[in-house]
Amino acid sequence: MKNTTLRLVLIIGLLAGVNWLASQFFFRWDLTEDKRYSISEATKQLLSDLDKDIIVNVYLNGDLPAGFERLESATRETLEEFKTYANGHLIINYSDPSEASSEEQRQKQYLNLVDRGLTPTNVFANEDGKRTEKIIFPGVIVQADTMSVPVQLLKGNRSSSPEEQLNQSYEGVEFEIASAIRLLGSQEHKKVGLVVSHTKISPARLSDLIATIQQSYDVFLDMNNPESYEGLDALLVLKPDSAFSDDEKFKLDQYIMGGGKALFFVDGARVDSVSLDGNYAQPQDLNLNDLFFKWGARVNTNLVKDLNCAEILLNVGNMGDKPEIRPMPWRFFPLLNNFGTHTITRNLNAVYTRFLSSIDTVGGVPEINKTPLLMTSGYTQVVNAPALVGYNEARKDPDPATYNNGTKLAGVLLEGSFTSLFANRILPGDPRAAKFKSKGNPAKVIICSDGDLIVNDYDYKRNAPLPLGYDRVTKQTFGNKDFVMHALDYMTDANGLIKARNKQIDIRALDKIQIQENKKFWQALNLLLPIALIGIFGALRYYLRVRKFT
């Protein structure tokens, strides 16, 4: 009796000690190989710094197909992990938009979510031999005070299989939701400058990009031509079509020498419409070639034709007395679906381009690290400017054997300590000599050889801009906006939240043929094995008890 009491006291004392230690020292242990239940240190810091309540309304809920159930589980698990570090400032609500008292109420709920920025997905399934359709909203809305941010969770590369795309969405849950929380929780925004004084593109054609950047950053236009770009966290040069003066080039050079971050979206060739039959491409000199060359890159004065391309609507003849308009592949509009292995482009959807030029990297700049970001397919043909770009070519079936110029670089990231183009050129008596830097602090530059990558289309009937990356022909929205925003995040995010995009969850697919052939065996095994194990455990326990008391 005395031993039993002592043992009970020791157990209670041990449990009390473990409970006290758990209250004093917090830790979580993720035993999975791919760390699927862990979140990045930057996300933990973001959540622990919250000073106001953030509400996350999850609409991916209810009776879901297997693939979306996995995405829903990932969202739930990620948010529960978020809640652990948020010090009570994170509130999570789950709801199924399809639950309603009437069909009219259900449609009203759907429209409300669409108006708030979520995109529905139609899911088809077979139930008891009947084809069923369900509308689901794979997204969340993050709220704080009177502001809200829609977060689309179903992302990834559209050319991937549905299973791969869902897995890519699974991998991106942490980054997408954490980015929305950062947007609502941040009191101070980084400063981004837009160089638009060298482009003739109308503001309406840049409006979607500017509006998106303004959600996360303080935006400054260079219409007043500042003396320097000092103080900006990033600088975007948007589709210039007129040459930069040497003074303007000096400002760009010194901004990078000061450790600046710049993104250039430039054309190697200028394409002008000359008639209804086509366009004329000619070399474009922006007076930036020597600056890019000094940094280790060169934008070529050519156009790249790619068999992996978008379509244009073309009059292919008449049907009766009416013109016949058909979508035709237009190889001068490459779809970039070949990416470098970098955080910026991980799981990115294809990028839509128009009249793309190629980029070459330059040797002899060992201190600069060059990372390819955007590339064409391997089936390309290069047209050197000047050249006539005739629409009639879209009617012809291309010969793949003639598209043999290989993969071409269309976007490159340059990182390191740059050397000034103006080194040994600034004389002591020059007013600029006092602040001149010949060798720079670590900086980052991205050069993309298509200025149209950041230009949105415009719906003149509705008098409203279309989303950046939207293709009128296929009605798809490509990854242009995501590419720019991820690049900006990488450039300006000192805390490294963008690194959450590196999460990789392996697909451990089952052998479907084996499952189909041995279906009854696996069903019987799953049904009988647990019962057998319980029976064995019970028999063993009974035997030990009989042996003990005999």
From TrEMBL:
Domain ABC-type uncharacterised transport system stretches: 190-486
Alphabetized InterPro entries for the sequence: ABC_transp_unknown (IPR019196), DUF7088 (IPR055396), Motility-assoc_ABC-rel_GldG (IPR019863)
Parts forming coiled coils: none
Membrane-spanning parts: 521-544
Domain of life: Bacteria
Entry keywords, A to Z: Membrane, Transmembrane, Transmembrane helix
Domain DUF7088, chain residue ranges per copy: 33-143
NCBIfam families: GldG (TIGR03521)
Protein name: Gliding motility-associated ABC transporter substrate-binding protein GldG
Organism of this sequence: Dyadobacter chenhuakuii
Taxonomy of the source species: Bacteria, Pseudomonadati, Bacteroidota, Cytophagia, Cytophagales
